[in-house]
């Protein structure tokens, strides 16, 4: 398991403001993204979407895309298939000197019903959480442009 190499220092931004920073994507996974048997989508694809959400969070906080440093936890909770619609959400939970801790969740909201008809699909009454993760991004000091 990766270890922190430096301790975070005090945030330059008020926690109430940074905790309010959220970003989300809503998308359909095309069948062309299916990678494994049965139209299963690779978990790394969802991590790519988390990366896009993380990038938006960093732009909103720092005016810079920053870099993903480490995931400390990733849980694949339910399979994702080509044709699924997902909501991907992230939020900043802690701001350090250059580090920004984040939480992510991907939820399935629509899924195909190929056994009913090739074009059939249904809206899930309750979205299914498919992936949860937490991680840390870094915006180097000289690239932080939205400091107040
Ligand atoms: C991200 C990167 C710029 C960080 O380099 P760095 O500044 O030398 O990293 P450091 O080890 O000094 O750590 C920077 C911060 O991250 C924190 N950190 C480091 N490793 C960590 C880990 N495993 N988990 C959580 N936080 C960590 C440090 O505590 C420090 O926080 P602070 O500044 O708030 O005190 C560098 O590692 C890099 O370029 N990595 C590749 C990034 C990449 O390509 N990602 C994939 C695509 S975005």
In short:
The protein is an alpha+beta fold.
Essential attributes:
alpha+beta, Thiol Ester Dehydrase, Chain A, two-stranded antiparallel sheet, 148 residues, 44% strand, binds coenzyme A, elongated, single chain
Please tell me about this protein's structure.
The protein is an alpha+beta fold. It has helices at residues 15-19, 43-62, and strands spanning 22-28, 34-36, 40-41, 67-76, 85-95, 99-112, 121-138. It has one domain: Hotdog Thioesterase (Thiol Ester Dehydrase, Chain A). It has a five-stranded antiparallel β-sheet with strand order 1-5-6-7-4. A two-stranded antiparallel sheet has the order 2-3. The longest helix is centred in the middle third of the chain and has 20 residues, at 43-62. Mean pLDDT is 89; it is low at 1-11. Bound molecules: coenzyme A. Coenzyme A binds at residues 2, 4-6, 8-9, 67-70, 72, 96-99, 136, 138.
Largest sheet: 5 strands, antiparallel
Beta fraction = 35-45%
* CATH level 4 superfamily: Hotdog Thioesterase
Helix content: 10-25%
Structural class assignment: alpha+beta
Note the total helix count: 2
> Major sheet: order of its strands?
1-5-6-7-4
The CATH class, by name, is: Alpha Beta
